[in-house]
UniProtKB/TrEMBL annotation:
Belongs to the EamA transporter family. Residues 295-345 are annotated as: Disordered. This is Membrane protein. It is a multi-pass membrane protein. The keyword tRNA processing does not apply. It is found in: Cell membrane.
Length: 345
């Protein structure tokens, strides 16, 4: 690689790495602005900031979506709404470090579930990596002494399972084939926001969005805008820009460092103190998920080529970015930009 090419690659990688950093810090941001009574209200406000920009930017492509594509994206949005609700309630009841690391188990759960659906066997190295990650979660959640996992830990684990369902649904749902990633993301976030708004209207579900907004201070608005502008819009457009200048696999690899940044921000900024046992758990989770991604990518057969999802992308998410024209569906365990929600957490 020439010096010019290396410099160009670095300039492309750096913004993608920044996306991983902001996603890792999103758990701390959500914890800073959300209470148990304002979870749904915060989610409505967060998406209310994002959706008008996405709709205005991609209006022409939204109008070109077929009825089947809209309905399929709407169904995916319902699953995504469950991910956001579980994650955000979970963050309220656990530490930012625990949330960011436990949710990373999606990278292990996805190939496990996919192997069951395909009737294939996973390699011994992947199963060992999965066991290492699970052991890490046990140690992390018991850092202060062995006891039952907290409610927040269990909710985040539920979010990881639900995110796995979302990833698999996105990769297998035929009705959304041919729709661009930006439109799919916009419809999903719109459907999710509708779910949050309906839940907010139900009695006993916490503060209404306008009531929560009225009680926000400057710090609360800063956290909310950080979640909306950086963790969603910035991430979305960086991925759209980067995937056209490098490979989806390279983008996915950089975004896979998110758990590292979740641990760094939680320990350095939030003052999380997992203890020696918890720190050992952190190391095992990071090692297990990294090893698991490598093992899954190296042992699974290539997925069949399908109609590429072209042009644009970022949650929830789990990470909408447009695949290139030669792209295929992700192999089990591979997090392809454009096939996972862009918003966090």
């Amino acid at each position: 690689m020439t010096v010019t090419a290396a410099r160009r690659a670095w300039l492309t990688d750096l913004p993608v790495l920044l996306v991983a950093v902001v996603w890792g810090s999103s758990y701390l941001a959500a914890k800073g602005v959300t209470t148990s009574r304002t979870v749904l209200a915060v989610l409505v406000l967060r998406f209310a900031v994002v959706l008008p920009v996405l709709v205005a930017t991609g209006w022409r492509r939204l109008r070109a979506m077929s009825g089947a594509q809209v309905r399929g994206a709407g169904v995916l949005g319902l699953i995504l709404a469950a991910v956001f609700v579980l994650e955000t309630y979970g963050v309220v009841h656990t530490s930012a470090t625990n949330a960011g690391l436990i949710i990373s188990l999606t990278m292990i759960l996805t190939p496990l579930a996919e192997s069951r659906l395909r009737g294939t066997r996973l390699s011994p190295s992947f199963l060992a990596a999965a066991g290492l990650s699970v052991l890490g979660v046990v140690l992390l959640t018991q850092g202060a002494g062995f006891s039952a996992p907290s409610l927040g830990d269990l909710l985040i684990l539920g979010a990881a399972v639900t995110r796995t369902v979302h990833v698999l649904a996105m990769s297998r749902m035929r009705s959304v084939d041919g729709a661009d990633a930006m439109s799919l993301t916009t419809v999903q976030l719109g459907a999710s926001m509708l779910v949050f708004a309906v839940l907010c209207a139900a009695p006993g579900t916490g503060a209404a969005p306008w009531a929560a907004a009225a009680g926000f201070g400057a710090g609360d608005w800063a956290w909310l805008l950080y979640l909306s502008v950086f963790c969603t819009l910035f991430a979305f457009f960086v991925q759209m820009w980067a995937v056209r200048r490098t490979s989806p696999s390279r983008v996915s690899l950089l975004l896979g460092t998110e758990p590292v940044w979740a641990a760094v921000t939680g320990i350095a900024l939030a003052g999380d103190r997992p203890g020696l046992t918890g720190l050992l758990g952190v190391l095992l989770i990071l090692a297990g998920t990294a090893w698991g991604r490598t093992a899954a990518d190296g042992t699974e057969p290539p997925a069949p080529t399908t109609t590429p999802v072209t042009p644009e992308p970022p949650a929830t998410a789990a990470k909408p970015t447009p695949p290139g024209p030669d792209d295929t569906r992700p192999a089990p365990g591979e997090t392809r930009p454009g096939l996972e929600p862009a918003a966090r957490p």
